[in-house]
Amino acid sequence: MNSNVLKAMPVLLIILGVILSCNKENDDDCSVTVSNLSATYRLTAMKYKQTSNSAEQDYLLLLPACEKDDQIKLNANMSYDYVDAGIICSPPGNDQGTWALNGNTITSNGLLNGTIESFDCTTLILLMTDVNIPGDKLTMTLRKQ
Hints:
- By secondary structure, the chain is an alpha+beta fold.
- It has one domain (about 30-145): Lipocalin, CATH 2.40.128.280.
- It has three helices and nine strands; from the N terminus they run ααββαβββββββ.
- The protein has helices spanning about 5-20, 35, 65-70; strands spanning about 40-50, 55-60, 70-75, 80-85, 95-100, 105-110, 115-120, 125-130, 135-145.
- Strand 3 (about 70-75) and strand 4 (about 80-85) form a beta hairpin.
- The longest helix is centred in the first third of the chain and has 19 residues, at about 5-20.
- It starts with a helix and ends with a strand.
């Protein structure tokens, strides 16, 4: 190797090491915040249990095809848009409203009301209880688009 290259090698290795070791703290921040939750989602699973001992039912299968591809957009200004995307229902199911976040609880004047069971920056799992009868549970899995 050229002697100038050999002299510059330690400096280049240090610069490369600094670049590779830089870790942005917010890159992996999937905490439940308005900023992190604000995105467009699609429902990918919906499971219902009438009691803790009953078999889980796949409620997504019960939805009409025109509702399975809809989008829920949670806006940072605490509004939401429900968009009848893909196959359009008749009449279209578009809707708008507001949502709020209090700790791990989402409330809205629409579809999303419940406790955030998990959030990994891509998948939001929301648990709702007492939907049809006291003690039942509905789990919705929403995936960022």
